[in-house]
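TICKET: design request
STATUS: open
ATTACHED STRUCTURE:
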């Protein structure tokens, strides 16, 4: 049976941004044919923790996905970063996914302990908290995406597709 995977991305937040690399990556993924998974996209989330979280939680309730991959832009990074977890004050919530196994075989992906202090961490925390609070079996990861260009697009896309496949096999 195909695994249902919800993928999310953010909209831009600065007036000089042409796009958000997290959404650029999901756009590329959506063009890939013959993926053996049931991918559902929730793209261009507002760059607002409360709004983005409510949209994603509503979509979780609607779709009941097996996995969630939230994506955000990390302009200062050069590689994909899979985040261990997220903080809210003194409380830290970690993903239930084995990240070492998840990134096995990737060439441009790191495991990160720095989800940032922007909307990315807020969304990741809200989703992890919701899954835990309602004892859902759905697993969630957060992936930071560097700015995409001709030099890194193919390797980043290949790594991301491998992460999707590894997640579906977990």
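STATUS: resolved
RESOLUTION: sequence designed for all positions
ATTACHED SEQUENCE:
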């Amino acid at each position: 049976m195909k695994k249902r995977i919800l993928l999310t991305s953010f909209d831009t937040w600065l007036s000089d941004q042409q796009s958000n690399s997290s959404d650029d990556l999901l756009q590329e993924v959506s063009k890939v044919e013959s993926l053996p998974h049931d991918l559902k996209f929730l793209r261009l989330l507002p760059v607002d923790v409360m709004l983005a979280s409510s949209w994603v939680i509503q979509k979780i309730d609607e779709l009941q996905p097996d996995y969630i991959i939230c994506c955000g832009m990390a302009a200062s990074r050069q590689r994909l970063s899979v985040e261990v977890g997220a903080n809210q004050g003194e409380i830290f919530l970690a993903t239930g996914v084995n990240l070492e196994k998840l990134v096995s075989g990737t060439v441009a992906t790191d495991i990160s302990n720095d989800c940032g202090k922007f909307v990315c961490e807020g969304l990741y925390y809200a989703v992890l908290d919701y899954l835990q609070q309602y004892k859902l079996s759905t697993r969630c990861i957060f992936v930071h995406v560097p700015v995409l260009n001709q030099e890194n697009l193919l390797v980043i896309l290949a790594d991301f597709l491998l992460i999707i496949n590894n997640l579906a096999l977990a």
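CLOSING REMARK: Strands lie at 4-10, 38-45, 67-73, 80-83, 85-88, 91-94, 109-112, 139-145. The longest strand covers residues 38-45.
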